[in-house]
Design brief:
Helices cover 34% and strands 31% of the residues. With 262 residues, it is an alpha+beta fold. It has two domains: 101 residues, no CATH class; 144 residues, Gcn5-related N-acetyltransferase (GNAT) (Aminopeptidase). Strands 1, 2, 3, 4, 5, 6, 7, 8, 9, 10, 11 and 12 form a twelve-stranded mixed beta sheet that branches. Helix 4 packs antiparallel against helix 5. The longest helix has 17 residues. It is globular, with a radius of gyration of 18 Å. It starts with a helix and ends with a strand. The mean pLDDT is 94.
């Protein structure tokens, strides 16, 4: 994989040229930023910026005004190659809060291994409706605990909206142990790009280390290839990064969400 070429394609296709996610969201390119504004249940934030030391503070202040006037909490998705070099410090000084850093990893979908097989007692159930989304939310709570209940509810609303409004741009699946959901994951497609994004995959602690996460990746990779997408992209946590590395994913950069709450 040509790291520089893939990073350039990622930056252009998924950040600068993003078309948004449909529904109530709108993409605006103004004042050196690409930002997404939607309803309170949508993702709101800054995806891409063209700033330097002389303009960064004014650009940050303008985004705070814009989203505050809209009554929206928003995220500034800062990447390790963004400029100026002290942009993170400027965001903190403006009242943003940093969330855990993630590693942007990419692999050629067709080159990923086909396995492993699911462990005994586990089956994959496609998620296509509200009942399936409910199972995904239960799997999320099983993986991350009740402290993540608000995020689980938010994700459930978002996935259900995607399945209803743009069903061709999402594939969701839940791993079931009998009648109990133990892992939920989804893949989001960006028409006109080379990338399909992998999201979720948190697994019930009782079922970790048995190959479910890897099987979920392989399952979605096959679908991505069938739909003509070249690359799989993941914003990987510290837990999933070693697994993805072993599967053949390469690190492009890191990304840190900086959140502003009016």
């Amino acid at each position: 994989m040509d790291h520089a070429a893939v990073l350039a394609a990622y930056d252009r296709q998924l950040r600068h040229d993003t078309q948004g996610e449909g529904g109530d969201t709108r993409v605006e390119r103004t004042g050196g930023v690409v930002r997404v504004t939607g309803s309170a249940h949508d993702w709101n934030g800054v995806l891409w910026t063209d700033t330097d030391a002389s303009t960064a503070d004014a650009v940050i202040a303008e985004q705070v005004r814009h989203f505050t006037d809209a009554g929206r909490e928003f995220e500034w998705k800062l990447h390790s190659y963004d400029r100026p070099d002290d942009l993170a410090e400027r965001l903190l000084a403006a009242g943003f809060e940093a969330e855990p850093m993630e590693t942007v990893m990419v692999a050629e979908a067709a080159a990923l291994p086909a396995g492993p097989e699911l462990p005994d007692g586990i089956r994959l159930l496609p998620v296509t409706d509200a009942a399936g989304v409910k199972l995904m939310a239960e799997a999320h709570l099983a993986a991350f605990g009740e402290d993540d209940a608000a995020l689980s509810e938010h994700l459930a609303r978002r996935v259900l909206a995607q399945l209803t409004e743009t069903p061709d741009e999402i594939v969701a699946v839940v791993a079931m142990a009998g009648d109990r959901p133990v892992c939920g994951a989804r893949m989001e497609f960006r028409p006109g790009t080379d990338f399909a994004g992998l999201w979720g995959g948190g697994t019930d602690p009782q079922w970790r280390g048995k190959g479910i996460y890897r099987a979920m990746v392989a399952h979605r990779a096959r679908i991505a290839v069938e739909r003509g997408y070249r690359y799989l992209q993941v914003d990987a946590s510290d837990d999933s990064r070693p697994i993805l590395d072993r599967l053949g994913f390469a690190t492009l950069c890191t990304t840190t969400p900086y959140v502003y709450r009016p």
